[in-house]
Amino acid sequence: MDVSRQQAASADDAAQAPAVEKGPRARTRRLMLETATRLMQSGLTPSVSEVAEAAEVSRATAYRYFPSQAALVQAVVDEGLGPILTWKSTSNDAERRVADLFATAMPRIEAFEATFKAALKLSLDQWARREAGTLGSEPAFTRGHRVDLLKDAIAPLKGRLKPRQFRRLAQALSLVFGVEVVTVLKDIWGLDSAEMMSVAQWAAGALVRAAVAESEARSVGMSAASKAMSA
Amino acid sequence: MDVSRQQAASADDAAQAPAVEKGPRARTRRLMLETATRLMQSGLTPSVSEVAEAAEVSRATAYRYFPSQAALVQAVVDEGLGPILTWKSTSNDAERRVADLFATAMPRIEAFEATFKAALKLSLDQWARREAGTLGSEPAFTRGHRVDLLKDAIAPLKGRLKPRQFRRLAQALSLVFGVEVVTVLKDIWGLDSAEMMSVAQWAAGALVRAAVAESEARSVGMSAASKAMSA
DNA sequence: AAATTTCTGAGACGCGAGTATCATATTGAT
DNA sequence: ATCAATATGATACTCGCGTCTCAGAAATTT
Which end of chain B has a smaller Cβ tally under 10 Å, C or N? Predict the structure, then answer.
């Protein structure tokens, strides 16, 4: 038989398969992911070429596994997100559950600060491309995990709050939860990690209590939250 | 829109232009800024080259006025920020003042959505560069306007709140005010402008009321983590 | 009007990201 | 050990951003 090149056949299985794979393919991918994670946790935002050099593989090979910096960041984000996504609180109190979630997630986000900031940057890039119409069927960044996490955290209020209020609370909480909080409180205000945590926790608690107070003011009548209805 | 402008009326330089300049220098700069603003308000995030083409000047000339996309975005941000920075509320009620500020600023931010998102992206770029040590001693993005605006908005509480509480409220409010709100509520949650506005306003109001309530409850001595309605 | 300063346009150039191609090395089944 | 499938590496290429140089056009001065 005639021997011709056929590397193109196995081009697109390198997306995101944490499934049990063996062989050099999985090994190299793992090596690159670990290298990229290590670099990003040290604060860097390496390009594919830089990861290739650090992992001591050729540029060509690196690009075979991660066709762009976006793919690389996405993979590291998934890595860093792991412990957060499996989070479960033991409490039944919404405010405490939210506090738990923040205490779990925010330090993790800070540890992967460069990664999450890169992800935010890439999502903005994607938005700009979509707006300009020059979106070439790209991976489509996720960036919606906080929605489910927060909905789950305040799930105990699902009975006490009207669906409309429940959703609004989740939406408001999503404003004080995530990398954006880091960019605002640390980069603009110059706070340190502990101060940032404190502010975010206070804001989250205040929002939860406000939602509860409002809902109780509606059913019970007079209460300390009477001012809340004037909005 | 209208490209024919007098060169004499050229007092409004934005970023790094030496004060009062006349002649073709100011005219070309103004032409480019108007072109860039128009393009960005239509949702695009043009490169310097693209603005050059749209403004019908050569690439070389364009780069003389705006040495990078960052400089361009910064200039357009200043343009878009104008009406916001001069904002003054007539009310003495902190909550109302905050609501006023939001009602003024957020629509403006939305109108310049592409610009502010580009600015956010560039500030993330800058952070990454600083982190990597490869900062070319160039841009220095501002991005701190919301601090003064919010402090001013809640100024009526300066007497009622302790400095620590006052600062914390301003910091918390800065989380629900700015482009980040747009990226989270519109891009992730899929809300429209009105819904976004409603959520941001509710969150801001809740935070202000929580700060006030806490300060009033302080005479009891206990941290306000307990339910607000337990009187 | 002539001379001088300033502005502009048209290239060439370097650089980094991403793509494509081909030759070689490694693996795994027989 | 052999042979085909597959993984890897070296290299060259495109492309867009930003820099640089230089000659010509415009404006300002005298």
Answer: N
Is strand D in 7 Å reach of the CB of A23? yes
Q: Give the three-state DSSP class for B38.
A: helix
Tens digits of residue pLDDT in A52-97: 999 999 999 999 999 999 999 999 999 999 899 998 899 999 999 9
**Does pLDDT of A119 surpass 70?**
yes
Provide the CA B176 to C1' D16 distance, Å, integer. 36
pLDDT in tens, A11-32: 333 334 444 555 667 789 999 9
B-contacting residues in A 31-60 (Cβ below 8 Å): 43-45
Of A123, A202, A227, nearest to B168 by CB-CB distance is: A202
The band of B142, judged by pLDDT with boundaries at 50, 70 and 90, is confident
What are the chain A neighbours of B180 within 8 Å (beta carbons)?
Answer: 175, 180, 183-184
Q: How many CB atoms lie within 10 A of CB B96?
A: 18
Closest nt to residue A58, judged CA to C1': D9
Domain ranges of chain B: 24-67, 70-220
Residue B161 DSSP symbol: S
Looking at the structure, give the CATH architecture of the domain made up of residues A14-67. Answer: Orthogonal Bundle (1.10)
Residue identified by tokens 């789950």 is A152
Phi/psi for A225 (5° steps) reads -95, 20
Residues recorded for chain A: 231
